[in-house]
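Input (structure):
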């Protein structure tokens, strides 16, 4: 781990700060992952903050969902909601008094003002002035503490009138955002409106104020977040300045958009629905509509595969390496290797990652995942046997959930035979040679057929038969189709008696195919 102090003496501290407005989108998982990698790489802290000041958008269960998602993914926070720490509380709804204090500071310094305009008055202005924006050019014509007398403002507040506090943005200033991924972004402050920072109605700050105050108080050194927050960054820079916190302003890094797998534009839930992949880490049950959205966990993806895939959507390790353990990703991660160009969400590649991670996982581990599925189908075998099955099929698996369909013939003799396979392999005397082979096998004393393999091969050669024809005819009888692993692995698993039973049961069917 590198020296964990920055050149200005500050410690690296980053945060993931979701709003609990629904399930965590996969783009949010990528943002959290990059923060996590950055924190670990630099020996820093990773903070989990809940930004729940927008009470209208609050969705019950969302916070729990987010915590559970990171638990599944194996991303750990050092402090925050449900993790504790010295900078709490970490849920913004529990920090009302703190924000009030900072709103007052801005009011006292003349950096913010109180506005009483009702929704109806604002609506009337919008109708009257094209592209109306509450700013330096319009604020003088509105109902606020800049246009009303001090007494009038106090009277209105005492009378219980609702108000908001707006940020007083000075026009025509160049606002510079230094972004570690995008470089210098400059905008003119005249395009910004006097953003609402606080609402008396619910006594809560808006996102912008709470976000800046908390990043400051929680000593956040780097703000790494999605591109959709880039338009807010100039306002945030101005807020830091208004508080006089320029020296401890965090560095910004806005991550590239996640794009649709095909076509152009931003990845949406609809793309996932259409093409059949989840856009959420876990399945989500919408408490309001009852709608269920699929999740990577329930769709049987391995969390490491999901993380490895996401890591490469917007970052590269500087070489062609694709499969990386968490330790390797931490070791290689840097914001300099993040791109500003959008990253296409190629979910086929994610399936490939899942396959690769299955290959890289010990058979015994996959077997442990498979055991409950076997139990569900009423099959009670020891772990070692499940492990043998995994060994037979692993190279073909994209998902562990495919194992049952691939391997169930080991437990259930085929009830019917695949037509194409039968047409191909059960012709020209198959019934004859399979029946002779059964007699030969029965005449031998060995219990496993694999021990007999050389003898069987000699027997086939002696008879002048074609090995492929004999073995495939037998395979279709055992499996029900011309698929599956090595035939002797199959016969050894089901046993000599079951092998002979299945083969002999298929012989009359072979005769039918021949006719
Ligand atoms: N609460 C914001 C969100 O939902 C946080 C944005 C930020 O990281 O500043 O993503």
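Output (sequence):
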């Amino acid at each position: 781990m590198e020296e964990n102090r920055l050149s200005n003496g500050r410690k690296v501290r980053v945060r993931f700060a979701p709003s609990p407005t629904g399930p965590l989108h996969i783009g949010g998982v990528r943002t959290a992952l990059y923060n996590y990698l950055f924190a670990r790489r630099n020996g820093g802290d990773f903070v989990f903050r809940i930004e729940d000041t927008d009470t209208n958008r609050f969705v019950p269960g969302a916070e729990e969902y987010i915590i559970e998602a990171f638990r599944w993914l194996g991303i750990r926070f050092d402090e925050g909601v449900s993790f504790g720490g010295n900078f709490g509380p970490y849920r913004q709804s529990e920090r009302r008094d703190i924000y009030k204090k900072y709103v007052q500071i801005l009011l006292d310094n003349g950096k913010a003002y109180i506005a009483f305009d009702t929704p109806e008055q604002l609506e009337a202005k919008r109708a009257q002035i094209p592209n109306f924006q509450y700013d330096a050019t319009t604020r003088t014509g509105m109902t606020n503490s800049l246009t009303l007398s001090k007494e009038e403002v106090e009277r209105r507040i005492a009378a219980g009138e609702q108000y908001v506090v707006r940020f007083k943005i000075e026009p025509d200033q160049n606002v510079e955002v230094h972004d570690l991924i995008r470089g210098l972004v400059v905008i003119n402050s005249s395009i910004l409106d006097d953003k609402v920072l606080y609402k008396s109605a619910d006594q809560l700050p808006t996102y912008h104020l709470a976000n800046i105050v908390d990043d400051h108080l929680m000593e956040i050194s780097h703000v790494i977040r999605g591109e959709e927050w880039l338009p807010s960054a100039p306002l945030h820079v101005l807020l830091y300045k208004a508080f006089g916190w320029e020296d401890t302003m965090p560095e910004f890094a806005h991550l590239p958009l996640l794009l649709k797998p095909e076509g152009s534009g931003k990845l949406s839930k609809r793309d996932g629905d259409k093409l059949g992949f989840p856009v959420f880490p876990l399945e989500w049950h919408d408490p309001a509509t009852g709608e269920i959205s699929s999740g990577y966990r329930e769709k049987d993806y391995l969390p490491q595969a999901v993380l490895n895939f996401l890591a490469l959507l917007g970052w590269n390790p500087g070489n062609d390496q694709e499969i990386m353990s968490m330790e390797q990703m931490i070791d290689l991660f840097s914001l300099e290797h993040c791109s500003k160009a959008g990253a296409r969400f190629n979910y086929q590649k994610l399936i490939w990652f899942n396959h690769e991670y299955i290959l890289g996982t010990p058979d015994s581990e996959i077997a442990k995942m498979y055991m409950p599925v076997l139990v569900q189908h009423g099959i009670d075998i020891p772990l070692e046997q499940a492990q043998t099955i995994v060994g037979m099929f692993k190279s073909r698996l994209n998902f562990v959930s495919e194992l049952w369909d691939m391997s169930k013939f080991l437990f259930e003799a085929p009830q019917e035979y695949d037509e194409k396979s039968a047409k191909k392999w059960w012709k020209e005397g198959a019934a004859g040679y399979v029946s002779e082979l059964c007699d030969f096998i029965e005449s031998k004393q060995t219990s496993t057929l694999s021990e007999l393999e050389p003898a069987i091969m000699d027997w086939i050669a002696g008879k002048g038969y074609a090995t492929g024809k004999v073995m495939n005819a037998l395979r279709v009888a055992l499996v029900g189709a011309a698929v599956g692993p090595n035939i002797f692995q199959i016969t050894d698993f089901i046993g000599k008696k079951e092998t002979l039973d299945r083969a002999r049961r298929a012989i009359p069917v072979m005769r039918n195919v021949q006719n």
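Notes: Residues 17-19, 51, 211, 225, 229 surround glutamic acid (CB under 6 Å). The chain is about 45% helix and 10% strand.
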